[in-house]
Every structure is written in C-alpha cells, then in structure tokens.
Amino acid sequence: MHNYQDNSQKFFYELWQTGNRILCQGKLLVGSENHKFIASLVLITIPTILYYVFMAPALVQRDQVIQVIIFIILNCLVYVFITITVLMDPGIIPKITTNYEMDEQLILIPQKYLKVDPQVLFESKTLQMRGHQFKLKFCNTCAIYRPPRASHCPACDNCVLRFDHHCPWIGACVGRRNYIYFYLFIFFLSATMIYVFSTCLAYIFGNMENDKDKGEQIIQILQRNPISLALAIYCFIFSFFVVGLWGFHTFLVITNMTTNEYLKKHWIIQSKNPFRRKNIFKNIQHVLACIREVKFLELRQYVYDPKSYNQPITQNQINENENENLNPVCDNQNNVARRSSKQTDDHMEEQ
C-alpha cells in the first residue's frame, strides 16, 4: 500500500532548479539572461522599421519591388531563427537531486547514507572512442557524469550536450540541439546586413544622370531620404562583427569543433580532433543536422516529490544521524547510486 499525499505527483519544471526561465507552465523554456535577448531584438528591429518606413516606399517608387520582397523574406528568417534558438532546449542534461524522483517505487526503498568521501566515490571515468581516451568528468553541481563535449554553463546552471558557448547577445546557451538554428540566424542576419548596405548604396548612387553634377545629385537624394545613408553606415559597422562571427562559426562547422573547444584548445596538434569526419561535407552534415531525438529534458513530465512520502527510516540512518550531521552531498550520492548515468550511454551513439 502506497503511503503518499495527493500532491506527491508534480511536473518536472515545478521542482527543477535552473537558471533558465520557464514560461507558460513548462511549455516554453528561454535563456537565463532575457534582457540581452531583448536588447538584440531592439538592435535588429530599429533599422528594420526604418527600412520599411523610408527605404521600402522609395524603392517601390523606382519600380524595385523585388528588392523589398527579398528584404521581407530575409528579415522574417532572421526573426524566426533567433526565436527558435532562444526557445529551444540546447541539449540540457537535468540535474540529479533529492528534490524529485522519476520512479515512484524508488522513493519507497529505505536509504542508507554513504559515509564515503565524494571525491573518492566519484572519480573521473575514462572512455575510449576512435582511439582516444576521454575523461568523463563528474559534475558536482548536476551530480552526473558529463558525456564527451558536454560542459556546465555557469550562467544557466546546466550541463549541455556538445556545449558550444553561452551567447552574450541572446542570453542563452548554444548546444547540440539548437546550434543549427543559431548558425542560420547569424547567416541570414549577415545576409540581411549586406543586402541593406548594398541596396542603400544603390539607392544613393544608382540613378545618376550624366549631364548633371553628381555631387549635387547625391546631396538632393540624401536631403529627400537621409535615412538611406544612416542605414548604410549602421549596417557597414555592425556587419564587421556579424559577418565575422558567421565566418568563425563556418570554420568551426567544417572542422567539427565547438567554440568552447577552440578557446580552450582541446585538440592540440598531437592528438587532433577525434570527432572530425573524413571530409568537410560530412562535418557539415554532422554539425548542422537537426537533432530532435537526443533530448533528456521533459519539462512537463510527471515526477514525484519525496517530501510527500512517509519513507521508512532504517536503524543505520538513526545511528548515523545521532553521531554526526550528514553533509548534504550525501543526498546526491544516494540518487546517483539509484539512477545510473544513462545519459552518457544514450549520447555515445549520437557522437
């Protein structure tokens, strides 16, 4: 007979401790620094509005409607991919804590606390893959063994599969599951900036009459539409960063590296990169593949709150509680012992 209260079953997001923001009762997951995401949207939206208000009508008057249509398509793709990047789970591996339990039966098992130094109990494990020895580090914060290429993001407080970086412009992690959308976002943003810069210059210098002074014609055009020059300068300045960022990530894609690995210089000349495929096309296919099946985070999954159960206490627990105050890390030790590190095994095939 189960001895539990009616509120023992809860959604995972209600008990999950994370730096990310959860919206709409677990239906939406956003980054930990949403003010940066809003700031990026403002930097994109302001020139977009100016282009629609001032440049689009001027181009239509010159019978250049196709240029406006192309801008609308590029602009929509930018907003679509930045939204998907922020809202999609980057590949978070949930923490193992005593705040919840996936299996109700495990809660009813009496627990004996371990009196072992956690540094000895959770040594780094080694894994051999493609002739390379990988050290599976134990994350003390998440209480899991991190798979290869996974890393803990201090801003979001999560371990992320194939962690690339925590983007300071969108305030969210970029990992295995949303990297393709991040790459497409900076690609279309770069294309949009180059396109706006070129169309603005074509508007200013494109319809010159040979029998008139070119300087006076340029002044007249700028007097009618000074925003064209402002947009050209704006896109010229910011395109250095955006296009450069896209070029850098293109290099990472064709070499099958992450930003984290590049900055920390993981793959030195002697060992090289074991994840690099035989040619750049296979690297592109592997890195930019849409990964939907590799998912550990289910925000609306039902879990069980151990505090709602009257778990029997063993004599060992009574004796140990009388002798010493147990360190809170023991709770995580019990959960790790009860839950095998299945995440690592599930991720090996994906690598």
UniProtKB/TrEMBL annotation:
Q: Which InterPro entries does its entry note?
A: Palmitoyltrfase_DHHC, PFA4/ZDH16/20/ERF2-like
Region (Disordered) location: 323-351
For the keyword Metal-binding, the answer is no
Q: Name one GO cellular component term.
A: endoplasmic reticulum
User: What's an example of a GO molecular-function annotation for this chain?
Assistant: protein-cysteine S-palmitoyltransferase activity
PROSITE patterns hit by this protein: DHHC (PS50216)
UniProt keyword list: Acyltransferase, Lipoprotein, Membrane, Palmitate, Transferase, Transmembrane, Transmembrane helix
Entry's localization field = Endomembrane system
* UniProt record, GO biological process: protein targeting to membrane
Give the matching Pfam families: DHHC
First-tier enzyme category under EC: transferase
Q: Where does it primarily localize?
A: membrane
- Where in the sequence does UniProt note compositional bias of the Basic and acidic residues kind? 342-351
Query: Which chain regions cross the lipid bilayer?
Result: 37-54, 66-88, 180-206, 227-248
Give the reactions, separated by semicolons, that this protein catalyses.
Answer: L-cysteinyl-[protein] + hexadecanoyl-CoA = S-hexadecanoyl-L-cysteinyl-[protein] + CoA
Q: Provide the E.C. number(s) assigned to this enzyme.
A: 2.3.1.225
Domain Palmitoyltransferase DHHC: residue ranges: 134-265
Its domain of life? Eukaryota
Q: What membrane topology does the annotation report for this chain? A: Multi-pass membrane protein
The answer to keyword ATP-binding applying to this record is no
| Family according to the record | Belongs to the DHHC palmitoyltransferase family.
Domains: entry comment: The DHHC domain is required for palmitoyltransferase activity.
Name-wise, this protein is Palmitoyltransferase
Which species expresses this protein natively? Answer: Paramecium primaurelia
